[in-house]
Amino acid sequence: MNKPYQIIVSRSKSIEDYVLEIIEALNHNTEEVEIKGSGWDINKVADIYNSVKEKLKDGVTLDYITIGSETKDRRRISYLLLRIKRAY
Amino acid sequence: MNKPYQIIVSRSKSIEDYVLEIIEALNHNTEEVEIKGSGWDINKVADIYNSVKEKLKDGVTLDYITIGSETKDRRRISYLLLRIKRAY
C-alpha cells in the first residue's frame, strides 16, 4: 500500500478543488487520503469531507479523526486531521 | 449515568467561557460532555477541546468525534461533534 496522499487545506484553493483532487487521488494513486487544516481552515476540512462523502458515498470510509494543536509563529493553533480510505 | 451535558458552540461566548462551563459540568453534574459547532464555529470546537485537554490532561478522554452536515435556513452546513468523558 502506498503512503497516504496528504492534503494541507489552505485558503488558496476552493472546497471544490480539494474535493476533485481527493477523488482524483483515490481513483489513481492511493487508497488513503489525509486531510489536515489549522485554525480557520478547520471548518473547510469538515466541508471537504462532507462533500467527498456525498459524492462517493460508501466508496469511502472515514478511518480516523484527530484534534490536536501545534505551534506556528509562536502561537498555539488547533488543527483537525482526518484520514479517508477508499472502500472499493 | 446522567445524559451527556450538551454544548452548542456559538459566537456569543468565548472559548474560555466554554472551557470553564465544561470543567464545571464535569466536576459537578455529569460524566460526559458533548460539544457541537457548525460552520465557522467548528474551529472553536477544536480550540475548546484542546484547551480543556490542556487543563485536565488525563482527567478527560475523547470518546468520539463525528463530522456531519445538516440543513439550516435551506443551506447545508457542516458540523463537528465530539464527546469527552471524565476519566476520574
UniProtKB/TrEMBL annotation, chains A, B:
Entry-linked InterPro entries: Alba-like_dom_sf, DNA/RNA-bd_Alba-like
Molecular function GO terms recorded: DNA binding
Origin: domain of life: Archaea
Record has DNA-binding as a keyword: yes
Alphabetical UniProt keywords: DNA-binding
Pfam families attached to this UniProt entry: Alba
Domain DNA/RNA-binding protein Alba-like: 7-68
SUPFAM superfamilies: AlbA-like
Listed name of the protein: DNA-binding protein
Protein's organism: Acidianus manzaensis
